[in-house]
Amino acid sequence: MTSDTETPDIRNLAAFGDSWHGFWQNSLGHWLATKGLHILLVLVFVVIATRVIRYVAKRISNRLSRVDDSDAVVRSESVKHRQALASVISSVAIAVLYVMVAVDIANQLGLPVGSLVAPAAVLGAALGFGAQRIVQDLLSGFFVITEKQYGFGDLVELTVNGGGTAQGTVEDVTLRVTKLRTADGEMYTVPNGQIVKALNLSKDWARAVVDVPVPASADLNHVNEVLRAVSGDAMKADGLPDLLLDEPSLMGVDSIELDTVNLQMVARTLPGKQFEVSRRLRSLIVDALRREGIATKAMAGASRN
User: Fold this and answer.
1) How far is CA 1 from the centre of its chain?
2) Rounded to whole angstroms, how far apart are CA atoms 59 and 53?
3) Number of helices (H), then strands (E), in the chain
4) Rg for the chain (alpha carbons), in Å?
5) Are 210 and 272 in contact (CB under 8 A)?
6) 3-state DSSP call for residue 160?
7) In terms of Cα–Cα distance, which of 52, 49, 54, 46 is closest to 87?
8) Number of other residues whose CB lies within 10 A of the CB of residue 285
9) Are 144 and 178 in contact (CB under 8 A)?
10) Is pLDDT at 273 greater than 60 in this prediction?
11) What number of other Cβ atoms are within 10 A of residue 70's Cβ?
12) pTM of the predicted model over 0.70
């Protein structure tokens, strides 16, 4: 036997249970329990899947950057291309996932997806005329990746529409844009469709070119002997042989001016190391010529692929 104070509570609880049960039996409750729950789970899945795809792409990129291979040049080129490919594949996978989820949610909401094909085609054509630049960016990015024009870590100089240039180290490559980090730490974001010419300064191998200006009165035979000795010393210098693919070569007289004769020395280096090699070669050349009492003027240098 229940007391008078307990009876209203039990009745209220029973009434709440009946109303709760009735809510899930009506059309709205049934939709929430079936299709609504399905949509919620799909959205949760999308969030988790997106993070997993990006995490896996990042792990693959980091692992490729640490891969150990006996051929440093081949390893560098293959790794850079694979890193760029992993970034693009992850972006495309996420985009495809979003499209599939959007179609599934539309079906759950009862939208006639099939009947939207024709309007979508018309809308797509209209957007195509207004988004030609985006389409151009995507197509250009596709060819940048497939043709291996450049990849992560490459030092490149991009000529864009209008004659401007952007030079820096590639930090990110997608189907739409290329991001470059300059030596000053600035970031260029260049749409792929605006790239007219791409100069890769670290493709497979690079060449360090050092111009050696000496007085016209100097004994060129003696200068050549000194420079040949520098070429041999370069292969014994601390850390320099690791950057060189072969011994530097003396190319002889490059130009003759009024009171100066310019000789030229070239060396093949690992990708992107031509500037460091040029600096170190200049230092060796200046020291060697100074020991021999040969005066030098301001030495100029350039680097080419």
Assistant:
1) 78
2) 10
3) 8, 9
4) 33
5) no
6) strand
7) 54
8) 23
9) yes
10) yes
11) 6
12) no
Q: Is residue 163 part of a domain?
A: no
By DSSP bridging, strand 206-215 and strand 187-191 are unpaired
Total domains present in the chain: 1
What letter would DSSP give residue 33?
Answer: I
Instruction: Tell me the DSSP string of 225-264.
Output: HHHHHHHHHHTTSSSSTTTBSS--EEEEEEEE-SSEEEEE
Which of 219, 214, 213, 231 shows the shortest CA–CA distance to 284? 231
Residue 197 lies in a domain: no
Check if the beta carbon of residue 97 is closer than 8 Å to that of residue 127: no
257-262: long-range contacts (C-beta < 8 A, 24 or more apart)? 257/216, 258/216, 259/215, 259/216, 260/213, 260/214, 260/215, 260/216, 260/297, 261/213, 261/214, 261/215, 261/216, 261/218, 261/220, 262/211, 262/212, 262/213, 262/214
Q: One-letter amino acid identity for 128?
A: G
Kindly report the CATH number assigned to the domain that includes residue 226. 3.30.70.100
Classify residue 35: in a domain, yes or no. Answer: no
**Which token pair is 248?**
């530097």
Cα 272 to Cα 45, 71, 192, 208, distances in angstroms: 42, 16, 22, 10
Contacts of 64-69 with CB under 8 Å at 24 or more apart are: 65/152, 65/153
153-204, pLDDT tens digit by residue? 788 899 998 778 998 888 888 888 899 998 788 899 999 989 999 988 877 7
Domain-located, residue 99: no
Domain interval for residue 268 = 206-304
Structure tokens at 115: 């009947």
